[in-house]
Amino acid sequence: MSNCEVVNLPALEVDHTHQVKDVLRCILHTVLFNRALGLVRPKEVDLELFNITYVQCVDRKVERTIEEKVDLVLHWLEKYPGKQVQVSLKFFEKRYKQAWFSKQEERLYWEQWNVNITCTQHIGSLGANGGRHRSNTTSGDTHDLQEHHERQVRLHSLLRNALTQILTHVSDKKEHIPPVVSSDAVTFPYEINISNPDNAPSSLAALKKLLTQTKAPQMLT
């Protein structure tokens, strides 16, 4: 992938798996919408917790693919709390070369977006809107609430920085985009991969086992 533009977005630390859904949907939909050169119907989505509005393509294939990948990330974070996972969105061209009596598909990647996510809390430790349950509040709980608030402020800032980085890159970097050959809403084929950025052998083996136990999502072609 020597000619592939690689964009590393800010690493994000979230308090609850509910936030993972919101954050990942926001980032993946923003990238895909801004790289969709076909005819699309935009849809605004409000993230009330972060006071952020983003735009996504109204396309069932795109929505299904993102939801399937988000679910895989949630499975990983719930099974291995506190460990970091990397989500990569890659755009590519399809090339075909003759191999004996058949044609072999080759993928030439031209852009890759990476975001690392860590979930610090177990399921149920926070409320539905990301707030901690406040029954039997003690001084320790008050301190925890303050730390939680500071983490939310930091996450809000990092998410806004990530969106700004996406919009700046798609506006400034266009010379590497290949010719449009599809009439789909998202005109370029892409894939979304999940991996462990630390490359820890035990963690990678666990991720592979998890993926084989989960129904493989359909890729857009």
Write a brief caption for the model.
By secondary structure, this protein is an alpha/beta fold. The protein has helices at 17-34, 60-79, 139-172, 201-213; strands at residues 5-8, 12-14, 42-47, 52-57, 84-99, 102-119, 190-195. Strands 1, 2, 5, 6 and 7 form a five-stranded mixed β-sheet that branches. The chain has a two-stranded antiparallel sheet with strand order 3-4.
Tell me what you see in this structure.
- With 221 residues, this protein is of the alpha/beta class.
- The protein has a single domain, classed as Cell Cycle, Spindle Assembly Checkpoint Protein, Chain A.
- The protein is 38% helix and 27% strand.
- The chain has helices at residues 17-34, 60-79, 139-172, 201-213, and strands at residues 5-8, 12-14, 42-47, 52-57, 84-99, 102-119, 190-195.
- The strands form 2 sheets. Strands 1, 2, 5, 6 and 7 form a 5-stranded mixed β-sheet that branches. Strands 3-4 form a two-stranded antiparallel ribbon.
- The two termini are 19 Å apart.
Topology:
Layout: E1 5-8, E2 12-14, H1 17-34, E3 42-47, E4 52-57, H2 60-79, E5 84-99, E6 102-119, H3 139-172, E7 190-195, H4 201-213
Parallel strand pairs: 1-6, 2-6
Antiparallel strand pairs: 3-4, 5-6, 5-7
Uncertain stretches of 5 or more adjacent residues: 122-135, 200-204, 214-221
Helix percent band: 25-40%
Helices and strands, in N-to-C order?
A: EEHEEHEEHEH
Largest sheet: 5 strands, mixed
| Global shape | globular
Task: Name the CATH architecture.
Answer: 2-Layer Sandwich
What is the tally of beta strands?
A: 7
What is CATH's topology name?
Answer: Cell Cycle, Spindle Assembly Checkpoint Protein, Chain A
Please report which band the strand proportion falls in: under 5%, 5-15%, 15-25%, 25-35%, 35-45% or over 45%. 25-35%
SS-derived structural category = alpha/beta
CA gyration radius, whole angstroms = 19 Å
What's the structural domain tally? 1
For the residues shown, what is the average pLDDT? 81
**Cα separation of the termini:** 19 Å
Q: What is the CATH C-level name?
A: Alpha Beta
How many helical stretches?
A: 4
Pfam family, one: ATG101
Family: Belongs to the ATG101 family.
GO molecular function: protein kinase binding
Keywords: Autophagy
